[in-house]
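Hi L.,

As promised, MATE efflux family protein:
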Amino acid sequence: MASEAAQPVAALCITALLGHSHASNDPDPATTARHNVAVYGATQSTAFFLAGLFNFLLTVTLAQLSKAIGARSWSTVPMRLRVALGMALLTSAMSWAIMYGLRSPLLQLFGLSKDLIQSSRAFYDWRAHGLVLLFLTRLTTGILTASKAVWTVALINLIGAGLDVGGHALFLHTASYCLGMAAGQLDLAALAAHQIISQLWNCTSYICDGFADVGTILGARCFGSNDMTSLRSLATQLLCLGFGIGTTVLVILCAARAPIQELFTSDEETLARLRSTWWLLAGMQPINSLVFVFDGILYAVQAFAYKRNIVAAGGFLFYLPLILLAYFQWHGLFFVWLAYAALTLCRFAGAIWKFVVLLRAESAFDM
């Protein structure tokens, strides 16, 4: 969990520093700081989108590998590890090529000017190169075993699960990426405020994503061995921990809202947009944390297609109409994030329904 939390905490610190950074002789320090946060936010949103989009390969590999270990299907384990390594190389190359090769078009989607895009080049290129190391680090851990045989059926199952989880990742991370584009089209102050909100939201998400990984790995082993009692016990404990994290963040954001806001920026325009969305950000954190823990549990029981369908339904029925209204009609950062909150609530409702099924299941076949 500490490793999961390190990235968003570092991003929070950088955002806070950029929100107050400017040259000593700068005639307009507030605008400079606003531009710094906006550029950083656009770059981070692009990198986060690509990393999240292809992260489903790791999730599928861990879930199916853990299930095979739980079921003691040792002959399929080497093949799953080898396929994961090959896909890691492919996806790291693809993500780097997209981010590095489409720098200007991707940043223009956030409403950045040519001068701001040029000023961000060094950091942007560094983030693009870092994606390669990120994927290789995530997906090659533990891949040390050679395979003696490849089972075609197992490979087909892996590909099928990958497509299901890939669809879920595509819908979810595209929705997150579109938030930044919609905010950028409002103005740079809105984009800067969006960056701060995103980092605070992602901080809770990443911490609880550590619980989700535990749920995926240990839960899949319980599911593979048909130990539903242990699976339910594990899920309950992780959900309680996740809810505790979300509630703690909610209390902190409410009790110290002014100091936290001023920690990230002193620009009044950015602060005004930040305040308009603050209560929505704070109120959603318990649900946000539970949704991530539920993700790990649903991956453990191999409910890949179910998760994809829930995100797709929420995207088309709630997120898409609201984000279009926010962009064309309402013109406010609050309404941009309201669209994402609606998608999160849809994911939460779908996860609750599947969790009720898990509580009633007597064996893995009932899922």
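The mean pLDDT is 76.

Thanks again for sending the construct details.

K.
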